[in-house]
Amino acid sequence: MARCLSIAVCQTGPIQRAAPRAETVGRLVHLLERAAAAGAELAVFPEMALTTFFPRWRMDDQAEIDAFFETAMPGPHTQSLYDAAAKLKIGFALGYSELVYEDGVRHGFNTMDLVGPDGAFIGRYRKMHVPGASDVQEGVTTHLERRYFEPGNLGFPVFDYRGVKVGMAICNDRRWPETYRMLCLNGAEVALIGYNTPLRLDEAPALAHLRMFHNHLPMQAGAYQNTLWVAAAAKAGLEDGQALIGGSCIIAPTGEIAAQAMSLDDEVIVHRADLDLIGVCRKVNFDFDLYRRPDQYRRIAGMA
Ligand code: CDT
Hints:
Blueprint: E1 4-11, H1 21-37, E2 42-44, H2 62-66, H3 79-88, E3 91-102, E4 105-115, E5 121-126, H4 145-148, E6 158-161, E7 164-170, H5 177-185, E8 190-195, H6 213-226, E9 229-234, E10 237-239, E11 242-244, E12 249-251, E13 257-260, E14 267-274, H7 276-284, H8 288-291, H9 294-300
The structure holds 4-methylsulfanyl-2-ureido-butyric acid.
């Protein structure tokens, strides 16, 4: 019998700044219910799924900034999502802004947590590729993630989810080949990704028509070249005046898109991922043990 994991991508529509956390978490619970009803065993939500994508604004007031962050997971507003997971017996990966104090020093991370079907914490990933700038620049779409977040310090960990090796990545990470390669080398069979991608890029209007192509291209290539299933959830639609792309999808290790969202709103897509396909793809082209020779690369590059 084939080894399978039924995966749900829970795309959300916009989450406006004025939306109370409780209302937003209520939407996520509803999506999780839909995912479970469709037979999914694991769901992925977008990057920053509890708030608006606030790095589109320059803020100085620390209390105003901190209001977008979580200091505990689950916290009072998110506990109901964890309770729903345990009741429905479906795990999830959730993107959010994480605030931690270490030795009295404040650290902000763009984070995704993996939670089990019993509602218990499994593991954490902190976004490595933090894009944008730390202050407003003329002629450039304001994207100030580097003002609010530092790069992740947990590497690309892979966790056991009901016997399946699962890793995570967040938004801009998906554009970089090393994300998938690190996950693959760490044994991942499934990569869960959340994203918030503005439709408009003021600095490169000539590339405007390629926004969706450049969303799917690296994820399909990453899945194919690293023999992974990729499940990617967008926050989509017109959020606080800024249009975000959708295109949430589930991609097979063949590089094919197995399922894709059709709206810019709250939507669930589900696919039963055949994990044996990974072995088939490895046999055809990507037998890493046989063909991949980092020692030779190092020698050729004059590094060894
Ligand atoms: N959230 C995020 O990482 N978004 C980026 C846009 C960067 S525009 C400077 C992305 O790669 O989609």
